Amino acid sequence: MDVLGYLRLVRRHWWIVLVTVMLAVGTAALVTVRTAPRYEASVTFFVTTPSQGVTDAYQGSLFLQQRVKSYGDLLTSDRLAQSVVADAPLGLTADQVRSRIRTASTTGTVLLKATITDTDQTRALKTTETLATKFTELVRKVETPPDGKAPPIKIEVVSGPRVTSSPVSPQPTRNLVMGGLLGLLLGAALAVLRGLADVRMRDGIALQRVTGSPLLGEIPYETGAKAAPLIVGAAATSARAEAVRKLRTNLRFVDVHEPARVIAVTSALQGEGKTTMACNTAIALAEAGWRVLLIDADLRRPKVADYLGLDGGVGLTDVLVGDVQVGDVVQRWGEKSLLVLPSGATPPNPSELLGSKSMADLLVALRDSADIVVIDTAPLLAVTDGVVVAVQADGALLVTQQGRTSRSQVAAAANALSSVSVRLLGCVLNMAKVAKSDAYQYEAYKVVVPPAAPSVPADRAGSRRGAKAGGGRTQELTRLSR
């Protein structure tokens, strides 16, 4: 995965980054509040020795630089700490005093700095003053020759002792900034791990890669699609309707040398929007002037008649068992050249009925009666009905809902089709999240039409008792009913 892929994962799981940053900043703020303020008191010593001449000065400087390193260790020695505790009642032990001392020396100089950090500002200053006094006394005592002559090294206090007026720690601004940065890095890492561990289908590129078929369309998610699933009326100018029209175009030109006239629409799982996709695809094809026949072959949970507002009591099942002729139950929908064959009564053996010779003969006859036949089938992983119907069609269209179906489930559905040599025309990512920029481009360029009355079923050709000759049968299927 490239850098852009990782950035997409972080953007997709932005809430993980936000929560992690908030927790990190909150933790930093809590630690800052609960940490006692600490003050620093410091004193700087200058180490010198009498010298004569340039050569003596240079050698003396090297000698003193070496001694400064030793004096740094002397400042943190147990002997000096015990001397400080014995001289002034600080309420600290020798180990506590020693742990508070920090020394530093600048390379190439003879300056030595001692810093004491304490939560008590007054005690920090008093400890530093006592330390400076005891240190100079200790150096003088150690460096004084046995014969009592003047020591060759002299220690002078050139700065301090002084204590900071404000605490050196905690530093709220620094802590909060550091907490935010650490939270950002940790959140980004968690978002990437969450994205890599997420096996659900998240984008069209992954769907195309898993199925090994072209991506024919990405249908955007719309909040009002559940209440009004069909692309008619006000929804005809929506971005979802335009995406279905793009699917119609891609579907017609997916293979110009061998166009598919009988298309099975299926999915891996139920609830992915295959029935809605079948209905809208049929409507879009009919809008383009094609004679379209929509068949509800999902005999276990038929929904086409409910979506289109048709009578689904008699339909495909009754035709297959020989109770009625297909021309008696096919219904015209709306003012478009769209014919609908509902599912009919629920049979006890859907798979056997759909795989029967009657079904094969029916599809051969219907192929000559319509330009395009769209079949809504059952989910592939639930039952075998979808595969049985897809085998008899010219190809299958696999519908997958974004963020719901896993990659393994989609792969299993594609394998179920390929195992019986079903031609997978392409795949569709349903309920996809579209970038705001793309949605804005469509809203800015769409055609605004005056409101019109919603499309309704014009003539329900076919019922249990038949219908009048003028509206009971469609002209396209009259010869099939004889």
Layout of SSEs?
Elements: H1 3-12, H2 14-34, E1 39-48, H3 53-75, H4 78-87, H5 94-100, E2 101-105, E3 111-118, H6 121-143, E4 154-163, H7 172-197, H8 204-211, E5 215-220, H9 239-252, E6 262-267, H10 274-287, E7 292-296, H11 304-308, H12 316-320, H13 326-329, E8 331-333, E9 338-341, H14 350-354, H15 357-367, E10 372-376, H16 385-392, E11 395-401, H17 407-418, E12 424-432, H18 436-445
Parallel strand pairs: 5-12, 6-10, 6-11, 7-9, 7-10, 11-12
Antiparallel strand pairs: 1-3, 1-4, 2-3, 8-9
Helix pairs in contact: 1-2, 1-7, 2-7, 4-5, 4-6, 8-17, 9-10
InterPro entries: AAA_dom, Bact_polysacc_biosynth/exp, LPS_length_determ_N, P-loop_NTPase, Wzc-like_C
Domain Polysaccharide chain length determinant N-terminal: 1-87
Membrane topology: Multi-pass membrane protein
What does this structure look like?
- It is a single chain.
- With 482 residues, the protein is an alpha/beta fold.
- It folds into 3 domains: 3-35 and 171-197, no CATH class; 39-159, Alpha-Beta Plaits, CATH 3.30.70.1130; 204-477, 3-Layer(aba) Sandwich (Rossmann fold).
- The chain has helices at 3-12, 14-34, 53-75, 78-87, 94-100, 121-143, 172-197, 204-211, 239-252, 274-287, 304-308, 316-320, 326-329, 350-354, 357-367, 385-392, 407-418, 436-445, and strands spanning 39-48, 101-105, 111-118, 154-163, 215-220, 262-267, 292-296, 331-333, 338-341, 372-376, 395-401, 424-432.
- The chain has an 8-stranded mixed beta sheet, sandwiched between helices.
- The longest helix has 26 residues, at 172-197.
- Mean pLDDT is 84; it is low at 452-475 and 478-482.
